[in-house]
């Protein structure tokens, strides 16, 4: 948010939408728009990770999270409706960077290797942690704003992100065991 210098009273404050009257709600709505972009971007990015992965369990985990992610997009659309806002996406630079990192992992590793699968898991867990932090923060903001229905939708997605992260962590443990066993 821009700070106004003294003596330069903004004339733009004739705007009458709710956002401009409640900075916390403005912050919240901006976060929702950011997540809307992020989740839509993941719907496009996850199929690349599915086809790059080798381990069938890893493929399946990402496939089922892709279906959940499509649900996350729909939940955010429900949130826009509850907020009386149009579904507008605001580019999320963090998610763009995180998915680029995942694609970089694929480029740097060979098809069919444990290294590639591990790279995909590591990159995917960073994505989940970003989502967990975002949903957790927005859930708390929703509570402060008294947006209970919105908060319940955020909590549902938050628990799916946490579970996805746990599944990936389990797979990482198994992949590491596999690598050690392979070397023995
Ligand atoms: Fe998500
Ligand atoms: Fe996720």
Automatic annotation (TrEMBL):
InterPro entries named in the record? DUF892_YciF-like, Ferritin-like, Ferritin-like_SF, YciF
What top-level branch of life does the organism fall under? Bacteria
Q: Where is this region: Disordered?
A: 1-20
Q: Which CDD domains match?
A: YciF
- In Swiss-Prot or TrEMBL terms, this protein is called Ferritin-like domain-containing protein
Name the source organism. Answer: Pedobacter endophyticus
* Lineage of source species: Bacteria, Pseudomonadati, Bacteroidota, Sphingobacteriia, Sphingobacteriales
């Amino acid at each position: 948010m821009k700070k106004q210098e003294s003596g330069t009273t903004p004339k733009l404050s004739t705007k009458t939408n709710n956002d401009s009257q409640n900075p916390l709600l403005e912050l919240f709505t901006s976060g929702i728009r950011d997540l809307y972009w992020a989740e839509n971007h993941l719907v496009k990015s996850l199929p690349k990770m599915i086809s790059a992965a080798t381990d069938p369990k890893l493929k399946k985990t990402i496939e089922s999270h892709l279906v959940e992610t499509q649900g996350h997009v729909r939940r955010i659309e429900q949130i826009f409706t509850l907020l009386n806002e149009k579904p507008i996406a605001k580019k999320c630079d963090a998610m763009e960077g995180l998915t680029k990192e995942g694609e970089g992992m694929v480029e740097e590793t060979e098809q069919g290797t444990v290294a590639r699968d591990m790279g995909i898991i590591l990159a995917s867990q960073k994505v989940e942690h970003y989502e967990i932090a975002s949903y957790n923060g927005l859930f708390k903001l929703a509570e402060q704003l008294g947006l209970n229905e919105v908060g319940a939708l955020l909590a549902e997605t938050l628990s799916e992100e946490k579970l996805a992260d746990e599944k990936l962590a389990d797979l990482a443990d198994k992949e590491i065991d596999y690598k050690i066993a392979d070397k023995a």
